[in-house]
Specification:
There is one protein chain. This protein is of the alpha+beta class. Among the domains are: 139 residues, no CATH class; 68 residues, no CATH class. The strands form four sheets. Strands 7-11-10-9-8 form a five-stranded antiparallel beta sheet. A three-stranded antiparallel beta sheet has the order 1-5-6, with helices on both faces. A three-stranded antiparallel beta sheet has the order 2-4-3, with no helix packed on it. The longest helix has 20 residues. It is globular.
C-alpha cells in the first residue's frame, strides 16, 4: 500500500466514524486548527531528516485537528528543513474535501504583518478600537476591510516597559468569514487555538519517535500514528447514558484506563469473552463504551 492509499484510508475511516454517529456536529461548530511540529530523530542517516528553524534534527510534520474533540482531520510528514507553509494548501484541500459534505466551511486565519497589512491597520481610527478582556494586559480590537482579503480583525496589545517614553502596541491580524461582532469574533479566534495540546497528545503516542530510515516508510508511519490516535479517541467518545463525553481527555489517560488493562479471555458456552477486574476505575465507562459499539449501525457503503 502506497502512502497516498494509506492517506485515503485514513480519510475513509474518518468519514465512516462520523457517519456511524461520532460526527462533531453533535457538539456544534467545528473548529479545525492546522499547525506544524518537530519530530526529533537522532540519526542524520534517515532520509529527509534535517535541521529546521528550531535547530533540531528531525522531521517537520503538518497536522490538522478538531479543537473540541482532538480528532486528526489530516496529517502529513515533511522533511525537517521544510518551510512552515509547505504542503498547507494541499492539506487545506484535503480538509475541505472531508468536511464539506457535512458542514458549511468558514475560515479564520492569522496573517503576517506585511507592508500592505500595516497600511490597512493604519487606516483604523483611534475611536474604532474597542477594549477587551485580555489575560496579558491591556488590549483592544478593531476591524477593517480589504477588496482582496475581505474582513480583517486586528487585535493590539499594549507593550508595558519600564522607562518607556510613550506607549507602543503589538498588533495581531487575522482574516475571517465570521460575521459575529468584532469582540466575539476575536474571542472565538483565540479560544479554539488548541492544536498544540493535540500535538502534545500525538507525541505521547506513536509520534514519540519516527523509526525508519526510509522517507516513505516514515511518511506512512506518521499517517498510521494519526489513525491510531483517532481510534483511541473514537473508542472513548460515545454520548450514551452512563458514559459522559470527555473530549479533552489526554491520550496518556485513555491508554492507562481503557487500553492498558489486565484481562483474560474466557469462553463461556463456547463464546469468547474478555474478563477484566470489576474494581477497575473505568470499568463502568468501558462497559458503556462496549454497549455503544454494539449498537452502532453496520457500515453499508
Amino acid at each position: 500500500m502506497s502512502v497516498t492509499q494509506l492517506d485515503l484510508l485514513a480519510g475513509e475511516l474518518f468519514v465512516r466514524a462520523w457517519q456511524a454517529g461520532l460526527g462533531p456536529w453533535v457538539h456544534g461548530t467545528v473548529i479545525v486548527d492546522m499547525d506544524s511540529t518537530i519530530a526529533p530523530v537522532f540519526s542524520s542517516a534517515k532520509e529527509g531528516a534535517a535541521y529546521g528553524y528550531t535547530k533540531t534534527l528531525g522531521y517537520h510534520p503538518l497536522v490538522a485537528t478538531i479543537a473540541d474533540t482532538g480528532e486528526i482531520v489530516a496529517i502529513a510528514n515533511r522533511d525537517g528543513n521544510a518551510n512552515t507553509a509547505t504542503g498547507s494548501r494541499r492539506m487545506l484541500s484535503t480538509i475541505v474535501a472531508r468536511l464539506r459534505n457535512h458542514l458549511d466551511i468558514g475560515y479564520s486565519v492569522g496573517v503576517r504583518r506585511t507592508s500592505r497589512m500595516w497600511d490597512l491597520i493604519n487606516t483604523i481610527d483611534d475611536d474604532r478600537w474597542v477594549p477587551i478582556d485580555y489575560r496579558s494586559g491591556v488590549a483592544q480590537v478593531a476591524q477593517t476591510w480589504d477588496n482582496k482579503w475581505g474582513r480583517i480583525i486586528v487585535r493590539r496589545v499594549r507593550n508595558i516597559r519600564d522607562g518607556a517614553l510613550f506607549d507602543t502596541w503589538e498588533h495581531h491580524a487575522f482574516v475571517t468569514s465570521n460575521s459575529a461582532p468584532v469582540v466575539e469574533a476575536d474571542a472565538h479566534h483565540r479560544d479554539h487555538a488548541v492544536v498544540e495540546l493535540n500535538i502534545r497528545d500525538l507525541k505521547a503516542g506513536a509520534l514519540a519517535h519516527v523509526p525508519s530510515g526510509a522517507r516513505h516508510a516514515n511518511a506512512a508511519w506518521v499517517i498510521c500514528a494519526g489513525i491510531a490516535y483517532n481510534i483511541a479517541r473514537w473508542a472513548t467518545n460515545f454520548d450514551t447514558a452512563g458514559f459522559p463525553i470527555r473530549r479533552r481527555t489526554t491520550i496518556a489517560t485513555i491508554r492507562q484506563f481503557f487500553i492498558a488493562i489486565a484481562v483474560r479471555v474466557c469462553r463461556p458456552q463456547g463464546k469468547p469473552r474478555i474478563s477484566g477486574p470489576l474494581d477497575w476505575p473505568a470499568a463502568e465507562l468501558i462497559q458503556a463504551c462496549n454497549r455503544s459499539i454494539a449498537l452502532m449501525p453496520h457500515w453499508s457503503g
